[in-house]
Specification:
homotetramer; 491 residues; Fumarase C, Chain B, domain 1; two-stranded antiparallel sheet; two-stranded parallel ribbon
């Protein structure tokens, strides 16, 4: 049974924010000292106390008794070192800017991981594509066999979709990695704080200037969850295909044992539960997005308590997306293809009909619509478009005469050309326009995508490195500011 | 009563796509000719026929009888110039890539307009901010008076939020302005088409390479509607404030007569209907986003008819966002402020309490939490924090003694300092940290934002110009390709 | 390009409301006359003028020039018969209660149609179920073959789901069919109006009493769109199965030619576009729901202009749901089953494994988990569970010995019993628990569902009849009130 | 860092289901014994083991190591009493029907609580309404003063809205309280189970018959979260008003200290955090609804793992709604009104303008539109509509002459009548149409609503009682079935 006090808490979110909150406290205190706003000895006490608080024990046992993580830290500190000193940590700051800053710090770390994970998924897709540059499969539109294609082409399509997710997430990162710290309640402060300094110590790229904007906005949350929604949509489409492909009817792939489960009642089952959960959790992320949008709509400036309710949704969407990318990556890595069945199905359903129509256009100089109509008649009659060019040509002549009054064989179409059109591998090879499934294009795209991935990996590593270096500097400053007096104390 | 055939239509979307479809047809035909895939005389016939089709009459009267805009154009063309020639326009192309291309072309034009409109709104906000750099108002958190601030600070916060919307929309533009044309059904084509050429003629920045990706993805739609959702959220917050401010209780602003309506039953009403509709239509855009996400979830590759249902939502969200930005811009432009009432309210509710607490911290060297507690007691006792520094100091001394055993006046707090803290204008001026409401900061931000806006305007103009130049080239090519033969014909 | 005035319009919604608005006007005027609030001659003039206005011409040509349908009618009336009389129609009423009433009247008619349509779909599902009481098919969990079942069982499941939709929509009807008329702006009126009388004349079941509640609430819209969302979810699941079943890989059904389309480029395609669109439009209805919720959230009482934006979403969701049910009904009616393929697939994938395990439990008195483990081993070894009971028993003995140290044949399991377990038809027949696929249960359910449907049809007809009778009375009163004076005039 | 195994868990949901799962196990085992499917001694062992498992320790320490709650219970049981006996509990059942049943049992209990809570809120609203049957306040449309009203009228409107929520939740209850148990994986079972018996033992109203439907559907979840969404929307509107009313500008109410929080930086703040959180959590429930809809869309029959992801959203929406109703109830109970300020504001903004126009219609026989125009002119001129009937009449005459060529005082309008129209209390009393704010109507509605509430309370209590009686019977049966052998053992 929830109590009144429970209603105001969001404990999971507060736990998530704890480490970030610690960093924000440290950076703020270091700056207060540097600007001479706090005295040396107060800073030493505060920093040492923060160090003591920074523990799993605090998170599990102390934090839950307070209204939020910020209050918890400050209250425990006051208990430890007295209000006289402990109360000063909050100088020139408010919960409003602190929470906005902590969310950004916590989210940034997760986001960097997700982005790396997306790149790992891209790498796996490229690997599978490379390994399957000869694997023929039916290509679908409307879940109907349309034209034959190559598995590599299919997975390269996904790799490109996830490359765009990479870029979208990188843009979201830019909006996130700015510092609201120092905006205080919304009107900044009369203390001579240095917002650039705390921003630098916390690894932010810049300061989010306007102090009212800084505490009021959660547009970066909407932005990043929108990116997750797009990413999850892409994942859900791949998951759906894996589910279809691993059905008895398709039988194109075997999902690795780690990613299927059995049934409590049906011993023969290999259920693609992981793929189903990725599909389902896409809905969960949509729900988070809808929740955050509804919460933020029509809120007057500046801070309102409603914004607290945004954070758990951000957390949920972030964790869900991170785990989903990671699961998909391993599932793709271990996916076994049933190439034989794919190749067999590529023959079924007249997938070469388009090629045949195109050949008629090219070779017999017939308008596309007419060629389409001739082949359509052929298909409706149930003529198998498999191998017998001679038989097919003869049928085509019959239908062409109906449509155009003239046999195609009189317009230059030959048995050989029909045979070439009906040959799946040749047909695919002819599709060598930019981005098509012909081997030359597949090879070119594979090379280009791998090269892109190297560049993209470097970019994300550079972001990660920059943050890491700043946080290292912060820790050094914290140690230095805490040590000096310790030495003095010893003397 | 809907018929079965109606169910498959999306007429409004098709009308929207018509002009884009025309451009795509032209670019495709020009390229087919340049690559020698179509003959001169066929191209002349096709281009002249396209010119004839390009009319409002066609959109209103012919289009509705066909399954979609693509079919309508092709069918009418075949009727006009025969299947022999008219049927050839479709060579090396499918409805799948055509519709994906047309959506991008149509959306791009709208998006450029929206982005310009956002910048106009930013300009109006900056104008109002500049004009109100001395307008004192209460700043709110939780809709409670918190601290006094300056109207310019408030509107600069919005200007910064819309600046981020500008950048988000610019990123969305990048994902939109790539060409899927030539992907055909999903497997590209065996015809020697030139995808770069059609991309160039249509003003695209590049080719969306993988042909399966090109027809399957609608991530750019999710992306752009997400941007709209963020933009509308920002608009809804400003709309909410305008509604609040124009209430009898706030009485801060007078919305221009063009943006209020009367009541059929209450003659005295000045209802802020436009602001209410902006707020409401934010929900409409959320609905579009949710619809598109749900539709795209778990669709197997490549094209599925479901994607058709995405377009009307894109259209609705685009039109709604465009109109909302534009209405807000004019409403802001014509907003009259009741500065007197704002200033009066800035005095109400102890808005200087924070400043007083901060002063106690600074001047009497008391920890923030203690100062906070002292002022809190004062407020609870109902002491008016208005002008009488002497009386306030005396009360403060009483409470300070309770908390710390010592009077504040013994710690260095003077009547003069209390008076300074209680003075609203001085209090605001002291908030001169980066991004705060002090005049120096407001002036600096105003200058910087104006300068940013100039740069941003140039950027969007350069995009617009680049597209325009390409489309001009396309028209020139169309005219040239149509004229040459005409000349020959004359000879 | 939208103008400022366009922004305030919702023309499609206003057109939709026109007929309802006419009825509301008539009922209001009749009541005003009956209560003596308006004079005879004024009422005659008003009613005759309303009769004149009631035309397609008005809707297409006059309506679009006004702010909304209510204003349009009143303005045209004043133009026609002067403000002195025309202005009186609005006595004791406001746009707020009028629009709330018109929406309910318009929606009620659509809803009655949708409910009937749902029942027609149930009838078709029952027909197909009856015709396929012997059609064996694989039953799926996780899209994996699980156990064999009967097509009738599958479609009876859908019939039951849609029966619940029937009941939910009937409940929604109850919330809709109450009259807000007479609530005026929100505070009712000082005129001695009779709200019960107008409610009765308009076919409402009762009066929505509290006048502030009456104009403020749109909970009935949220309610009915939620019902649509549930209904569409059910339709989307059936649509998904039809799409899967009509794929080349499943090949279970042939969708009627009216509900497939060809491809512009692939002549062999039979794309299940209608099923795909039903699936997609489910997302559209979700979007409408999300929009309406977001719009209504946190609106203070009473009426706000935001509520205008609710109506177009209601209209869209209503039309979409109505058409989708109707399309599904015809598609199901004309669905051809490939029974041979279904039966063949029912054999694939060890669907009788569960039955075999159950048999071991029953006959050899082995715990379920152990039996499950034994059969699981068998399946993993790839033993075909088809027909050879002897071979299977021998294998089972081997695995049973491993698990339990004892052969199953020593515990009472016989070749005959194994054979019975492996026989699909027998296996299904044994599943005769309530609601199972055994023929006895199928027959019982078919009978019960048909009988329920008869009752449900009567219920909806009685609602329809009651409304119709009231509207007839209204028309009679209108004619009488208009005629009496005419007669007098003649005399 | 999440592991692969974590991805498949939904621990919070499983903990929530634990007690329900226990009940389902017991009912199933009792029935298996009654039908002779399990032997006495096995049943004794199983039931005693279940009793042992039923502990907080199990939930906190054993449960998290297993895939789900069902697996956890069974696995621990097998560990305790061996597979030979422990494995038999699962006879004739699957996880698919078990989880569907457990969700319904767990949800039912929560729902009964929520419904009672809604009725408590209704009771508080009626109490406040009764206490404020004389409290005049301004009534708003578009957040503009419209007409004066009575606070009781306002809160009665909310009471009526929540009464509809009561009925909607009661309907949802009907769809929830049916038993899927015995449907097994989806094809029921060959064991001679008795589904009616388990349904009865578990307090269900009936059996959800079709076994495929029983495990596939989650429509009851969509249904109940839709009801929550409607309920939360109503709560959010009341929360919004409380936030507005407690602002310094409105100053209509004082929220009890338990439901406000202070500020870390602004000592004077009384932030209505609870009301803000209710408003925000409305968005959370919308998110849950959207998630569940997206997850269920287009799932083929029967069970898919996606359905697992539905439960956490159901849990979240249920807990959030339950707590929000309860918080609102207490907040309303302790709300203090500032009647003086309300009455003062009721005078502001010409709220009697409508009444004045109506009076002109009635007394001077002028059409409503004309009267409206006359009063409108008056208002625009800024004439105060307060007390001076003589002055107002003179002005009215001037404007009336302009509009109609005749003074109103020549048409029967007197100073006394004008004064009566301008008197707020009299004006409200005149609004005595059904549902209006006149005292007679308020009293009538108060009486009727209280009486309804008594009936509604009885209805929910009868549901609760029926469930309780069944569960008591279940416990008795469990004890009897476990005791018999114990007795034998003793002998």
């Amino acid at each position: 049974m929830q109590t009144r006090k429970d209603y105001i808490l969001s404990l999971e979110a507060d736990k998530w924010l704890f480490q970030a909150d610690m960093l924000v406290d440290k950076a703020h205190v270091v700056m207060l000292r540097e600007k001479g706003i706090l005295k040396k000895r107060d800073v030493v006490a505060i920093l040492n106390c923060l160090d003591k608080i920074n523990s799993d024990y605090f998170v599990e046992h102390a934090l839950p008794s307070y209204e939020d993580v910020h209050t918890a830290i400050e209250s425990v500190m006051i208990k430890e070192i007295g209000e006289d000193i402990g109360g000063k940590m909050h100088t020139g700051r408010s919960r409003n800017d602190k929470v906005a800053t902590s969310i950004r710090v916590a989210l940034r770390a997760e986001l960097l991981d997700i982005i790396k994970s997306v790149n790992e998924l891209r790498a796996e897709l490229l690997k599978q594509a490379k390994a399957n540059i000869d694997t023929v499969m039916p290509g679908y539109t409307h879940l109907q066999h349309a034209q034959p294609t190559i598995f590599a082409h299919h997975f390269l399509a996904y790799a490109d979709a996830f490359a765009r997710d990479f870029w979208r997430l990188m843009s979201a990162y830019e909006y996130i990695n700015v510092s609201p710290l120092g905006a205080a309640a919304f009107a900044s402060t009369g203390f001579p704080i240095d917002r650039e300094r705390t921003a630098k110590l916390l690894g932010f790229d810049s300061v989010l200037e306007n102090s009212m904007d800084a505490v009021s906005t959660r547009d970066f949350v909407i932005d990043v969850i929108s990116c997750y929604a797009n990413l999850m949509t892409n994942l859900s489409r791949l998951a759906e295909e894996i589910i279809l492909w691993s059905s008895s009817e398709f039988n194109f792939v075997r999902v690795h044992a780690e990613y299927v489960t059995g049934s409590s009642i049906m011993p023969q089952k290999r259920n693609p539960d992981y793929a189903e959960l990725i599909r389902a959790r896409t809905g969960t992320v949509y729900g988070s997005l809808m929740a955050v949008l509804s919460i933020c709509k029509a809120l007057p400036y500046s801070y309102n308590r409603d914004l607290q309710e945004v954070t758990p949704h951000l957390l949920q969407a972030t964790k869900t997306s991170a785990a989903s990318v990671s699961v998909m990556k391993s599932m793709v890595e271990k996916l076994e293809l049933n190439k034989e069945e794919m190749a067999k199905q590529a023959q079924v359903g007249f997938t070469t009909a388009t090629e045949l129509a195109d050949t008629i256009v090219r070779e017999a100089n017939v308008p596309f619509r007419t060629a389409h109509a001739i082949v359509s008649d052929l298909v409706k009659e149930g003529v198998a478009l498999k191998d017998n060019g001679k038989a097919v040509l003869s049928e085509l002549d019959t239908f062409a005469t109906r449509h155009t009054g003239k046999k195609l064989s009189k317009r230059g179409l030959t048995e050989k050309k029909v045979n070439r059109a009906l040959n799946i591998k040749l047909s695919i090879e002819r599709h060598n326009a930019k981005g098509g499934p012909a081997k030359r294009e597949l090879r070119r795209m594979l090379r280009a995508r791998k090269s892109d991935l190297v560049t993209d990996d470097k970019l994300i590593e550079s972001k990660d490195y920059k943050v890491g270096r700043s946080l290292d500097e912060l820790e050094r400053e914290v140690k230095r500011k805490a040590r000096i007096i310790k030495v003095k104390k010893q003397s």
